[in-house]
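Still learning folds. Look over my entry:

…
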Amino acid sequence: MQQPELRVYLLLENLQRQFAAYLGTPTLARGYPPFEGQHSLIVEVAPGLAIERVIDLALRAVPAVEPGILFVERQFGVLAVHGTRLDDVGRAGAAILDGLGATPSDQLRPRVLYSDVIEDITDQHAVIVNRNRQASMVLPGQTLLVVEMSPALFASAAANAAEKVAPGLTLVDVSMIGAAGRVYLAGSTEQVVVARDEITRVLGEIEGRDS
């Protein structure tokens, strides 16, 4: 039988308020919602159905962690588990890696495909962005940060990292499943630039193989 490919292995410490709320939205999670301050492990594998083995490995090893996302798309499977104790989440991850015969560095290295800072957005622009949002609203006159990356799940690391350094920003949208990941953040230009630079730093420090 084909050995599953580990595409993404992300341990997110200290989930931030807006990002945790986004992860708990019914349209995304459909599982156990995480809370601010908890820790999350997000994994992507191929083929997609191999994620059912991945969740079995995690929950059998550490029943204390809770699954928030279990999603099988066209090619890949996605799992997010979370818990209050970082050690529990880490042990669940270790069980997954052991079962897959993989290490964290076997994942794909993230690539930023596009990034832009759009200042003083118009009211019409804000309206059309807000029609497609999954989180909070961007307001006319704010500065909008848009970042696109691959693999898509790294948008979760980007969003949580940005909120840590610029908690005053509004998390407008996160797209973390699919061909590419996208993050929309809005607020003052100063905080948007801080968030952009932190996203670049965090993604640049993640080790992995070239896609």
